[in-house]
């Protein structure tokens, strides 16, 4: 399992190939990168709205070329270390969603919502660097983007399996491909040299109790994913009620009252996020 | 056109050895540069040259494959196998027949080769390029690839001579040694690479102004900016460094905000997380006239900055 991941159905292959990003985010970042007065904070904020662009930036800064592989898990830090010229290069080599936009819009909102939720949960749990948890939340469904872009036929089959059998998207992926986006995530994150905490959260957000080294981060993303579905903010491919692992709440030391507070804060911030016009 | 040293590519007179029985080659090479820019010493036999090569190495060695007493490849390998001479650029001269079958350049570690019949202007530029490339490679820090001491000194001296106002900042890391000792040199190198990137990107973000970043070696870096930008740059570097460096520690050490490592006496001691100290020398109105003054003032300030265990900067603003 190096450069490709082979699905069980029809032996089709997923590759680590270029993934497209949202045109509006790209335009905004391009404008900022050309503006000599723009700060890295401002650019990081815009990039953090797009899971594919964020993944690319982290992939780049964690590549062995720079000499500190797997160390950087915040977009802001990545930008400081990459510099504007490299960001310009990433922008130039990034293609945009075209036909995909409508199809993937719900997933994009779901990911953005999950990132917001993870930030709130991590702060409530008293963890340092809540931004890193937000990055993990932003990237947790990246595997779904990969399937949708690279194997559109199988993606279609997964969506109709969700509808016809009334199963979760993850179950439908397993029925159609033999594995789910959690495994694609693990494969992508390893191939791109993403930091181990982000990688484990991406790979274990459906089964945080199995996380080996960074259980708290996997639990935060698990809970964030659950809550953002509860809010019906965006769409992650199915409309099932997700199963909330009690272990996740235990790990974070959360009571029901904590969940209430997190949800209040999410409600407030989602109004802001919805204001982001694309 | 023949140019004087002041206008040439090199900062001082270059010397070259030519090992060749080919008299016309020697004549051509000598005609391409004035002797005060690049001077040639010619040896018709290889054997005689080797002792000179070892005791008084030139800036460039040109070896002709037509040497009769010793194979040219052996001379090249003799030079390249000794680390002291390894950086000396070696150019091989060959006849077309010599390279009819491919050469193994891993075994013959020369830097370039020239094929007969020689085209004088091509030879001139190939050799100029070889010398420039060797200077760049020699002075770049092997880890960060940033310019090293020679370039740093040159840049400062140049600014002093042109009378431009500038601020020179000297950065080094506090507790780098204890980090290196505890986590090993490869993780120490990661921190240096991160620091180099951080400084370079911060300095480059000031558009359209004179700036420079160099790597003195180890955990010592230097940057140059106009005096009105330097304080802002120090603040930004410190903020970014303090934000990023905890990520290079293991989670437990990071949580504690300290590591246990051995001190210079070999005793276990607790050290804080790394911090960056910056000493800034401002040269306005031509107050300073020599590189040595700049560096000795910087060293004094550095001690002051080091007294603070946290990241900090100290600026010397004495007026001339």
Automatic annotation (TrEMBL), chain A:
Signal peptide: none annotated. InterPro entries: HD/PDEase_dom (IPR003607), HDIG_dom (IPR006675), HDOD (IPR013976), RNase_Y/CdgJ (IPR052340). Residues 19-208 form the HDOD domain. CDD domains: HDc. PANTHER family: PTHR33525, RIBONUCLEASE Y (PTHR33525:SF3). This is HDOD domain-containing protein.
Automatic annotation (TrEMBL), chain B:
GO terms for cellular component: plasma membrane. GO terms for biological process: cell adhesion involved in single-species biofilm formation; negative regulation of bacterial-type flagellum-dependent cell motility; phosphorelay signal transduction system. It is an enzyme of class 2 (transferase). The keyword Kinase does not apply. The keyword Phosphoprotein applies. Residues 15-131 form the Response regulatory domain. Residues 164-318 form the GGDEF domain. It comes from the Bacteria. GO terms for molecular function: diguanylate cyclase activity. Keywords: Phosphoprotein. Its EC number is 2.7.7.65. NCBIfam families: GGDEF. This is diguanylate cyclase. The lineage of its organism: Bacteria, Pseudomonadati, Thermodesulfobacteriota, Desulfovibrionia, Desulfovibrionales.
